[in-house]
């Protein structure tokens, strides 16, 4: 998870519901990207990998849609594409070749049970001191 395009994101800063972020694949360094093209299997909006070493463009930005103030570990979350407003989704369509059995990830115009996501692995970073103070001392 990185800050939106051209923004500085402080390491360890909690992600707020409503923040714009980029999702970068650690293995390839490419960002989750979408644009007004049809996806190959479902005909919904295409979602692909784009950029190099985490650098791409504004079409890599996604808004975190969750309840409450912050996106908490183990909670469900939605990602809405900042430019085109589709929700990051997965349904039953599977590729045959070259990635047999992999499901198509795409953008859907409406929210549904197919666009809830939950973090399953990653690196947990301790909250910053500013966040800790905000949590325990609301008057600051």
UniProtKB/TrEMBL annotation:
Record InterPro entries: MIR_dom_sf, MIR_motif
UniProt xrefs under Gene3D superfamilies: 2.80.10.50
PROSITE patterns reported for this sequence: MIR
Residues of the MIR domain: 12-67, 67-122
Keywords, ordered alphabetically: Repeat, Signal
Pfam family, one: MIR
Full protein name: SDF2 factor
Origin species: Turnix velox (Little buttonquail)
Gene: Sdf2
């Amino acid at each position: 998870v990185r800050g939106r395009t051209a923004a500085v994101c402080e390491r360890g800063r909690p992600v707020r519901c409503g923040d714009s972020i980029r999702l970068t694949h650690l293995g390839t360094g490419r960002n989750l990207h979408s644009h007004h093209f049809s996806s190959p299997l479902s005909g919904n909006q295409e979602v692909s990998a784009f950029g190099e070493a985490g650098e791409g463009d504004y079409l890599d930005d996604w808004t975190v849609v969750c309840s409450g103030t912050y996106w908490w570990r183990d909670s469900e979350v939605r990602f809405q594409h900042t430019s085109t407003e589709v929700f990051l989704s997965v349904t039953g369509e599977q590729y045959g070749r070259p990635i047999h059995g992999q499901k198509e990830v795409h953008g859907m115009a409406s929210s549904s049970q197919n666009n809830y996501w939950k973090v399953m692995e990653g690196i947990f970073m301790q909250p910053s001191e500013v966040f800790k103070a905000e949590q325990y001392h609301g008057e600051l």
